[in-house]
UniProtKB/TrEMBL annotation:
PANTHER family with a match to the protein in the record: TRANSMEMBRANE PROTEIN DDB_G0269096-RELATED
Ranges annotated as spanning the membrane: 51-72, 112-131, 138-160, 180-202
Protein's name in the database: HPP family protein
Highest taxon in the source lineage: Eukaryota
Membrane recorded as keyword: yes
InterPro entries: HPP, TM_HPP
Species of origin: Massarina eburnea CBS 473.64
Pfam families in UniProt: TM_HPP
Keyword annotations: Membrane, Transmembrane, Transmembrane helix
Annotated HPP transmembrane region domain residues: 49-210
């Protein structure tokens, strides 16, 4: 029982290790037409309504599956392997990539790697079962094991994509796909890539896809703590509710109700930026409160103005 309780707290986050070596997104440096169709937005906005969303879902699913099926059925090198007219698991992927496009399950990392890992596992397990003389009779066991392992791998690698489970099952239970062997993995990777390309074109006309390519969390190498502490130890934070800021001063963060001014060499992460924006909002609220109090009476105005004048500028040294 103690072991079971201890196991309940186990948690493996592969992004804790991978995000350190994944380079930051370069999309903001690309020309706007290109970055837009790769999913980059300076500011996120709500998705379109479900009526227009249903239209884009229909157009995207039709175009995505039609493109994949057209290539599968007209390319001689693919036809030589006698593939199915369309891999069934792509139908489920179409719902995630063209319908609920903000779902983490349908982002490029999940779609591409989820399908790829599942296909690899499905083909690998099936080839092991093929050594059994009565494979046809126990084919369903290979499918169940393949799906189970694929599900576990997708969870541990942060690539959960439900249609990937279908790809693993198909590798074991569909005779046509079983005969294709490892070629099925390449076919799945190619088909998933084509569906993602169609998603970029269709979804970004009025919507946003993907929400992220790898992870919503910060990626890239982290600065050493000693460097961060050395920079922050020389930074003075001054909150100014009057908006009178001296831009020429160095190593000072100025926050007013209208703007936030940072030293040129100071880099902030996402959490720090949110904190500064929050302080900027609070200073704005302080100004609104002061104006409201001013309107009450001239007597209160004198008291309140005197009180606020002492708190207009707050200087804190770390």
């Amino acid at each position: 029982m103690r072991f079971i309780r201890r196991a309940e707290t186990w948690d493996f986050n592969i992004d804790h290790y991978l995000n350190r070596i994944i380079p930051p997104s370069p999309l903001h440096t690309l020309p706007v037409p290109i970055s837009r169709f790769l999913g980059y937005r300076k500011q996120q906005k709500p998705d379109v309504g479900n009526v227009l969303g249903a239209l884009y879902s229909f157009v995207g699913a039709f175009c995505g599956l039609a493109v994949v099926a057209a290539i599968f059925n007209n390319d001689w090198s693919i036809q030589a392997r006698h593939p199915p007219a369309l891999i069934a698991s792509f139908g489920a992927s179409a719902v995630l990539e063209y319908n609920v496009i903000r779902s983490p399950l349908g982002q490029p990392r999940n779609a591409f790697l989820g399908h790829t890992f599942s296909a690899l596992i499905g083909v690998g397990i099936t080839k092991l079962f093929l050594f059994h003389p009565e494979f046809e009779r126990i084919r369903w066991i290979a499918g169940a094991i393949s799906c189970g392992i694929a599900s576990a791998v997708m969870l541990l690698t942060g690539t959960v994509h439900p249609p990937g489970g279908a790809s693993a099952v198909l590798a074991a239970t569909s005779p046509d796909i079983t005969d294709m062997g490892w070629y099925f993995v390449a076919l799945v990777m190619f088909g998933t890539t084509m569906m993602l390309i169609v998603g970029l074109l269709i979804n970004n006309l009025q919507r946003q896809f993907p929400m992220y390519w790898w992870s919503p969390l910060d990626v890239g190498p982290k600065r050493k703590k000693t460097v961060e502490e050395g920079v922050m130890s020389n930074v003075k934070i001054q909150l100014d509710s009057t908006g009178d800021v001296a831009h020429e001063r160095k190593n000072v963060i100025y926050i007013s109700a209208r703007e936030v001014v940072l030293p040129k060499d100071l880099m902030l992460n996402q959490e720090e930026a949110k904190l500064l924006e929050s302080l900027k909002g609070r200073i704005g609220d302080l100004e609104l409160t002061r104006h409201a109090e001013t309107a009450r009476s001239s007597t209160e105005d004198t008291i309140v103005s005197s009180h606020l004048a002492d708190n207009d500028v707050l200087t804190a040294y770390p």
